[in-house]
Amino acid sequence: MCEACGARFTTFERVQLREITVVKRDGKRVPFDRERLAKSITIALRKRPVDREQIDQMVSGIVRKLESAGETEVSSNDVGEFAMEALRMVDPVGYVRFASVYKDFRDPNDFAHFIEKTSLDLDEEGDEE
Prior knowledge:
zinc-finger; 3 strands; RNR_NrdR-like; DNA binding; single chain; three-stranded mixed beta sheet; mainly alpha; transcription regulation; 5 helices
C-alpha cells in the first residue's frame, strides 16, 4: 500500500523456468520480454473481438513453448512464428496484421500474396481432415 496516497497494489507472480535470450536478426542479444510480445499481439488485435484474457493465454502458451524447448537462446524468428501460429488460430485479421509487420510487407501486393498463400494453406489443412 502506498503510504502517501493510500492506493493499494497487487502483484502477480509467474513461474519462470529459465532466462531466455532472444537473438535478433542482426545478431544482437536481448532478454525475452513477455510484455513486449503481449503488446505486439495486442496491437495486431486492436478493435478485434478478442479479449485480454485470450491474449494472455496466447502469450502464456508462447512462453511455455519457448521455455520447454530447453534452450536459453531463441531466435526472434522463432518467437515471431510462434506468435503467428497463435494468432492464426484466434483471429485471421490479427494474423495478417501481425504478419505485415513481422514479414515487413512493403506494398499491397505483399498482402495479396500472403493472403493467397495462407488461403491455400488453410484449404490444404481442411482437405486433410
